[in-house]
Amino acid sequence: MTTGTSFISCNGSRVYTEHQIGSSAMWQQYGMIDGGHNYMYVVSYAEVYVSYGEEAGLLSAFNALAKEAFPEATFSVEEPLWNVIKAGMHAEEDGIVFSSEEFTQGSVSIEEGRAVIEVFAASESVGASEGDGTAVRFTVENAGTNEYVPVSEAAEQAFMTVTDFDRAYARFEWGLNANNADISGTLSFASVASLAPAQLKATLCDGEMMLSVGEIYEDAVMKTPSGGFCKLHFSAFDMIRPGNPGEKSYEVTAGGVSAAYVRTAFAVLSFTVVDKEYYQLKDDTDNVLILSEEGKERYNYCKSMEITCNENGTFHISAIVDGSAAVMYVESVKLTVSGIGEQEEVVFPEDVQKSYDEYFSTSA
What residues contact residue 220 under an 8 Å CB cut-off, 6+ apart? Predict the structure, then answer.
């Protein structure tokens, strides 16, 4: 049995977290919240990380600690621990308890300004040996109070090194990883494609997505009856290839399909691998990203790119590309991503829904 203790102290704008195995501090982190940006300084790495989004402060710290406490658990990658706890929580005579696929037992006790969450993860969910498991106690202190949370001098200095580029990229990364958003814009094609400019539209909600480029291209990601995801794809370019009957049909993929995110929608333009090193801040701006020299090498089909990362939760992408088949013969791109984090059910076209129903009725 592996046992550990995690401690969180938070006053709303500053956070201190610590995870221990036995009596040894294994992981310490200081955090600061400022304008939607989360600054996290990890002591063992002596580095500061910047993220952006609605999940800040206490929740961010709690979920980060969970990844340290249960590094091999499925929820560390697929879903934040707090979401797992909420889904499996219920009241009993002795207080609040919870359970899930990962946990055989757990409890929550709440007092003014303090909460204690105890969890026990079964061996198969954390990669432990047979019959073993991991028990962790999360203690939350100073929540909802005005007590000052001390931050180390090293963390304070690290927070001061954060740049406009760090903040802009954090907003961009947050947007790319959103699974609720609207995307709209225009694609212009090379003359070889003999196509007029087309509107790209995409709606994403809870991992589902409906994306269309005019009437020539469609991608749908839909939840399956078993709770996973499947993909339905149509391309007019496939209809004109030798051996194709020339009729509109959808290719259905039901295995190995992941939930859709904003970055999923950009796969149509071969824009799938995103690293901070690929970008830099445009001169005389504090929110416009352009390709760095590494980025130009990585996206060698891209002649130019500008990404405006606004603080209102939207960002704009404009790019000039080479018009090759790798980017669906597109020469220029203008896209706007908005509504990030807003819940809006995806409405699938009738022919997409029909193909979905036919596939799962025959494969059941």
Answer: 209, 210, 211, 231, 232, 233, 250, 348, 352, 356
Lowest-confidence segment of 120-134, 164-178, 220-234, 308-322 by average pLDDT: 120-134
CB 61 within 8 A of CB 10: yes
Q: CA 93 to CA 27: how far, in whole Å? A: 35
Confidence of residue 97 (pLDDT cuts 50, 70, 90): confident
Contact indicator for 209, 221 with CB cutoff of 8 Å: yes
Return the beta strands (E) in 133-197 as ranges.
133-141, 181-189
Helix (H) or strand (E) holding 85: helix 81-87
- DSSP for 153-205 reads HHHHHHHHT--HHHHHHHHHHHHHT-SSEEEEEEEEE-GGGT---EEEEEEEE
- Which pLDDT band holds residue 128 (cuts at 50, 70, 90)? very low
CA distance 54 to 167: 15
Q: Which amino acid is at 217?
A: Y
* Cα distance between residue 201 and residue 262, in whole Å: 12
Q: Over the stretch 246-261, which tens digit does the pLDDT of each residue have?
A: 567 899 999 889 999 9
| Residue 48 burial by Cβ neighbours in a 10 Å radius (0-12, 13-18, 19+) | buried
Does the pLDDT of residue 298 top 60, yes or no?
Answer: yes
β-strand pairing of 89-92 with 47-52:
unpaired
CA 55 vs CA 38, 179, 252, 283, 315: distances in Å: 9, 14, 35, 31, 19
pLDDT tens per residue, range 146-165 = 666 777 889 889 999 999 99
d(CA 228, CA 257): 8
Are 233 and 217 spatial neighbours (Cβ–Cβ below 8 Å)? no
CA distance 216 to 247: 12
Residue 306 has φ and ψ, to the nearest 5°, of: -130, 135
CA angle 280, 282, 288 (to 5 degrees): 90
65 vs 358, more confident: 358
- The strand order across the sheet containing 217-223 reads 251-253, 229-235, 217-223, 208-213, 198-205, 181-189, 330-338, 315-321, 302-309, 288-291, 279-281
pLDDT above 90 for 172: yes
